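Entry for the shared binder. Reason: the reviewer on the internal report wants the predicted structure included alongside the sequence.
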Amino acid sequence: MMIQEEKVFGVAGGDSRQVWLIRSLLEDGHTVYTTGLEKAPLDKRARQVSFSELAELCSVVIFPLPVTTDGVHLNAPFSREPLLLGEETATLLKGKSVYGGMVNRLYRTGESWEKVSVFDYLRREELAVRNAIPTAEGAIQLAMEKYPGTLNGSKCLVTGFGRIGKVLSGMLRGLGAQVTVSARKPEDLAWIRLSGYEAVHTRHPGSGYDMIFNTVPALVFTREVLSRLEPGTLLIDLASAPGGVDRESAEILGIPVLPALSLPGKVAPKAAGEIIKETIYHMMEE
């Protein structure tokens, strides 16, 4: 999808996803101003300005995912200096359309954000579904790097049969892995069996796995569950912070844990940036 009418976009902060987002916006024929990306390898057509200039020049401003990591500053790892969020920033953006990920943190930086038109692209289903692909690919990349054997023929457990669980299970099976999937709800267990996987309950996942991929954003792997696993079982935790694994117990029991947050931005920033762009386009059309 493309926005046919030329727009003036401002992109503030962010990581490699924003670099590719900017390039994609430019290729669609839009004008793009940036701030907080001074150290990034930007397309030469992007115009770097101060935040106040960006707010004045642009009708649409795109913040990163997440908007802030510390609750005070804009998430801007490519910036030369910290960019404060808060009342002054919010005042500059009144009358603009602001898009960002995890915007609840933004509102906590100042009351004036309530008067700004802010939209959270992370809450969009199409973004979550499409992000499942680079997340699953990134998890498999980690497994290939850390597991001493091959995925083909390995015994894998995927905990959770949501968006990521569905995509990841299919990819692992395509590589020849023996895939078991866990869930809590009877209907999910039924769908797992119907999809051709062995199904187990998340509370009692069993043992004998070479590697485990956790997608459940809750403490699934307690000390009790971990104690049933063989030492050396590779556990890749895809769940959002604080994760789904008792890390202290895992270390004691000899279960290596790989936290794997924000994989789309790390392993596939080009795809992730385009997904964000197209999601914003949909929101603008609506």
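Summary line for the report: The mean pLDDT is 95.
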